[in-house]
Description:
By secondary structure, the chain is an alpha/beta fold. The chain has a domain at 7-128 and 144-171 and 222-232: Vaccinia Virus protein VP39 (Rossmann fold, 3-Layer(aba) Sandwich). The chain has helices at residues 7-10, 15-27, 45-52, 64-73, 106-116, 134-140, 150-159, 179-188, 199-212, and strands spanning 35-39, 56-61, 78-81, 93-97, 122-128, 162-176, 214-215, 218-232. Strands 1, 2, 3, 4, 5, 6, 7 and 8 form an 8-stranded mixed beta sheet that branches. Helix 2 (15-27) packs parallel to helix 3 (45-52) and helix 6 (134-140) crosses helix 9 (199-212). The longest helix is centred in the last third of the chain and has 14 residues, at 199-212.
Amino acid sequence: xxxxxxxxxxxxxxxxxxxxxxxxxxxxxxxxxxxxxxxxxxxxxxxxxxxxxxxxxxxxxxxxxxxxxxxxxxxxxxxxxxxxxxxxxxxxxxxxxxxxxxxxxxxxxxxxxxxxxxxxxxxxxxxxxxxxxxxxxxxxxxxxxxxxxxxxxxxxxxxxxxxxxxxxxxxxxxxxxxxxxxxxxxxxxxxxxxxxxxxxxxxxxxxxxxxxxxxxxxxxxxxxxxxxxxxxxx
Length: 234
C-alpha cells in the first residue's frame, strides 16, 4: 500500500471506500456523545459519518500526509498519527474500515485492539473480504493481501475475544470506462504496491481484463466489504 505517497489523490479515486465507510457508520451507530478512537482514518470518510451522528472522534492514521489532509477536511475530529498494528492506547470504543486486511498478522492486531478495550467496549469494523476484486485476482493472483471470506474474519474476531452481535457483507459492482481507468483508480488511491509486472505483462493484463469483464458501458469490478458490530469479551 502507498497511502502516504498517494494521499493527495486518494479522495478522488476512492469512491467505493467512501461508500462502505458511510454504510458502516449507518450499520450500527454509536450513541450520541460517545468517544470513539478511529484506526486507519485516512482522510476522514468514516470520521465524517461518525461526527454526523454526534460521536466524538479521535481519528488516527499511520500516514502523516493522510492525517494532515483529514485535519483540513474534517477539523471537528481530534487527529493524530498512530500505528494501529501494534499495541495501542486504551480506548472506550474503536472503529476502523479498510485497514485490517493490510496487516501481515490480523489475528495479532485484533488481540492488541482487544487489549485496548474494556470488557464490553465496542469495535465497529469494516474490512474488504472475498469476493472483493475477484475479477482482478483471477488474473494476477492474491498479491500482497491475503483475502479472507466472511467466516474466516469472524473466526479471527472470536479467537481475539470479541463477541460479534451483527455482521453482513455488502457488495457492489463498480463500472469503469476501461481496464486502464480501473487500474488508475487503484494506483491513485494508494492500494497498489511496487510494480510486479513488466510493461508487456501489464499490457496483456489490461487486454485480458477488458475482454473478460466487459459491460455495455465499460468494465466491471466487484467490491465487497464485511461490516461487523462487536464487543470485547471478558
